[in-house]
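Side project, low priority. Logging it here so it doesn't get lost.
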Amino acid sequence: MRLDAIILAALLLLPLACSSPTAPAPAAACNGDSCRGASDCPVGFVRDVATGSCADTLPKEDCPAGSAPFLGADGCTPVGWTACDAPFEKDPSGWGCRVAVPPSACPPGTRATLGSTSCVPIDDCTRPFPPPEATLFVDASFATTDAKHTRSIFTAVQRAKAGDVIAIHPGTYVEDVDVDRSDIQLVGKCARDVVIENPGDGRAGILVADGAKKVFIKGVTLRGHKGGVLVKGGAEATLEDSQILDSRWMGAYAAEKGSRLRVARTRIDGVVPDEATGKFGWGAAAQVGGRLELEDVSVEGATGTGVVIGGQGTTGTLNSVVVTRVHNDGFATLVAVVDHGNAEIDGALLDGGERVSFMVSGGTAAARRLIVRDTRAVDKVGRGVQVSKGGRLELTSSSIVSTAGDAQLLVLEPSSFVRATGLLIHNGAAAPGVHGFRVAGGASAELSSTAIVNASLAGLAVQDPATLVAAERLLVTGTRRIGTAGPAKRGIGIGVSFGGSLKLTGSAATNNVGVGILVSQADESGALARAEVRSTVVFRSLGDETGHFGRGLELSRGAVASVRDSVVAENNETSVVVGVGAEVTMERSLVRDTRRAAGDFGLGVAALEGGVLRLDECWLTGHPGAAIAVAAANASLTKSVVARSAVGVHVQGGAELISTDFVPAKAEGFACFVSNDTRFVDIQTRVGSGVMALPNLGEAVSRPAPKL
C-alpha cells in the first residue's frame, strides 16, 4: 500500500495524527548506487547496504583525553596543544602541556624559572671577580680612592668612557645612578652581594637616558627606588642576572621612541604604587614608543600589574617568563597589552591573576607556549584572557586553565579578534559559572585544532549581531550544568544567540550535559542567531543527573541554521529539536541512536511550535521513539532513509502529513511533507498515532552584561 493511502485512511480516523495499525513489511535492501536517497556518502561515512543509508565510522568508545572523534579521521585525533617541547611537558590529565615552577615564593638571591620546581640562583657568586676586562673599580670599603677606584657607582659612571667595564665589589651602595654615556658596563660580583639601595628620594635606581647606547648591567640588586631600571630618551640598556626588589612606581621601564630595555635572568619582586600618587605598581613596562624585552625573568608580588605594554609604537617580548602573586585590590592583571601596544610571547606562565590575568585592550599580541592558570574571580568577574576595545590576539600551542569567574577567554566589542591554533581551554578545577570561550559585542574569532574542556554554562558562547566565530577541528566536550535545569544553566557545548553567527567545520561537540549545539534567540533589533555546520559530530550529550536534557542540536526563537555532512548521534531525549522562530536545513547528515536516559521521548528529530525543518538526503536511524515528530510546525523529508526506529513519522498539533513527489520550496502552514523517494526500512510503526509526549523548548538564554 502506498504511504499516501495509509495517511489518508488514518486522517479519516484521527484529526491530530496519522497511523498505520500494523507495521508495514520491511523494505527490500538496496544495492550500491541504486539505493534511493543515498548518493555517494560524505567523507567519514560508509554505505549501510541493508538500509541504503550512510553510516558513520566514529569510535565505539569515548576518545581519550587530548583527542577528538573528528569525521574522516582514523580513530581519535589529537587536538589542542599537543606538542610539549622543553621546558613544557605533557599534562598528566592528558589535556595540553604543563610547566614546573616553584610552589612558593623564592628567597632573595634566587628566582623562579620555567621547568624547575626549585628556585635557581640568580647568578654565580663563586665566579672569579673582578673580571679581567675591568677598567674601573667600585668598593664601598676602599680606604683610599683614585681615578680608577671609587666608593660610589655614580662617580665611576661619570668617569667612564666608551668601552669601560666597571667592577662593583660586594657591599650596599645607597645611591641612584644616572647613565648618560654609551658603551659602558656595570658588573657586580653577584646580585646577592651587591645592593644598590634607594637613598630616600624619588629617583630611579639606574636611569639610562640622553640616547646612551650599549649600556650593560649585571649582577646587582636594586632595592626601594622609584623605578628600578628606567630607560628613556632613545637610550638602550641590558640588565642581566639581577634583582629589582621593593621598587615604587615601576620595576623595569622603557619609555619614549627609540628606547630599549632588555632584561634577562632577573627577578622583579614587590613593586608597589608610588606613595605620592598611588599610581602604577607595575613590575615591568614599556610605554610611549619604548621597547621592553624580558627573557627568563620572574615578575612577582607586584601591587598593580605584572607587565604592561602600552602606547602607539610600543613593543615588548616575553620569552620564558613567569608572572605570579600580583595583587591589586581585586584587579590584578598579570600582563596587559593596551592602547596600540604590541607584544610577542614565547614561553610564559601567568599564574593566579585576579579578575583578568591577560588583557589585550586596544593592543595586539601574539602568544606561543603560554599557560594562563588559576585566575581568581572578584565580584563574579574572573577571566583568564580578555580581548577588548579592538584588541587582536593570536594564540598558538597555549592553554587557559582553571579560571574561576565568568569566562576563561572573553572577546568583546567590534574589531576585537582572536585567532587560535592548538589552544586548550580547560576548566580542570571545576570552577563554577565559567564559559570556556565567550565572543560577544561584534567581536570575531578563528579557531583551529582547539579544545574547550569541562566548561560550565557554555563551552563556546557566540553572542550579539556582527559577532562571528569560524572554527575548524574544534572540540567542545564535558560542559557542565550550573544550578537548576534550563538551557541557560544546563551545560551548552556551543551556544549561538542574540544575533551571533557561527561557521563550524570538521568539529565535534561531545559529552556535554545539556545540549551539544544551541542556536537560539534573535537580539532586540531582530538580528537572527545563525549557524553553518559542516562535517561535524554532535555526539553523546549526556543529560543531567535526572536523565533529562542531553539534546544534540536545539534551535529556536529566531535561529537560522544549515547542517551538512554531519552526524548527530547517541544524544539523549531528542537528537535535533527545532522550535518557534527557527528555520533549519539538514543535508546529507545522519541522526542516529537517540537515548532515553529518563525514559522520555527518544526522538530523532522534532519540529515544534512553528519551527521550520528541511531534511534532504538525511538518514534517521535507531530511535526508540519517533524518527521524526512534527507538532504545530512545518517539516519536510526528501530523498532520505528512516530506519530501525519504533515510529517512522508522527504528527500532531494541527500538522498534516503529506506524501508527495514535489516538496514545496516555501514553508507554509503546519505540515510534514514526505517525498515519495524517502525510504522506510525496519520501522515498527511507520506513522504514529494519538498524542505523543514531546520535549519542551528551553527557557530563554540569559545574557549578562560583561563588567570590564
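Brief comment: Helices lie at 3-13, 153-159.
Revisit when time allows.
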